[in-house]
């Protein structure tokens, strides 16, 4: 046989190559942030029903608001226990560290972690500027000295920090890193950039020598910007305070993470996992009734890679005035989807006005409704996106991608 004449080392290389060709995508561990500040029956149900998808929950347990006030959040331990999954407490620090009494803050965090005796990890989430990274690292080093022996420290990292030399000192303070890949821009451009996410994930993998996870989005936000393009408010799981946007002409634009886009990125991670990547943390846990998050069924399909065909339809329905018709889009499938780019209303109907992310543009005998901004149409829901005048009976309505 020819194989007998080949060197043993060469045979080993050939066998390894053959195994590599047959190897399938890597199964990644999944976790989810429980960021809801109100523990409702719907949240308890989501913890129970989605427990089979995750290894653990990361629960918002305490926060320091912009005014420097530290408070613990009420958590339902019974709901967590029923889920059968471990929980990691997270402390969110919104105020600049320079404005805080650090000794008092560290004492508060240490006291909080005592309320989570079953957890071996505590996570700190603080979005500071790159110039504050060295100071942030000193704070975390001081915190570690006060934490009990064996308590692991997890840390949220922003892509903006990856180019800073001070990041190495920050990474040295933590046992685990969570790279945030959503809502990373200082403007209202996008919620998730897949090209950027690939680059940032690879960049961190080359720089780090410890396990890390990536945080992916399941949600949407309404972003309000002023006349100079600066973000004035972000509405996601918490409604925007009307006083924060008083006098701002732009009352908001919807940003969201398309399930298909995030799913494609997840498949890339599974197929070509960077070194030391240990899993994904989803922000945030979807639950029934949350209009700014994927449906639980969509989240499950993305994780399991079982997306189904989109069942999107458009129809004309009687309006409030004689001859008036409402243009209605309906998602009859089980997957959330994006609104189509163009809707065409055919004669004898004539478009009157667009709404809900659509603008009317007439062209010949047909009326075109063009999507002015992307939005998510959740599974099982419908939305009216315009009005048409049909004096001599209904005309045709078409979806044109």
UniProtKB/TrEMBL annotation:
This is DUF3142 domain-containing protein. The keyword Signal applies. Residues 1-23 form the signal peptide. InterPro entries: DUF3142. Keywords: Signal.
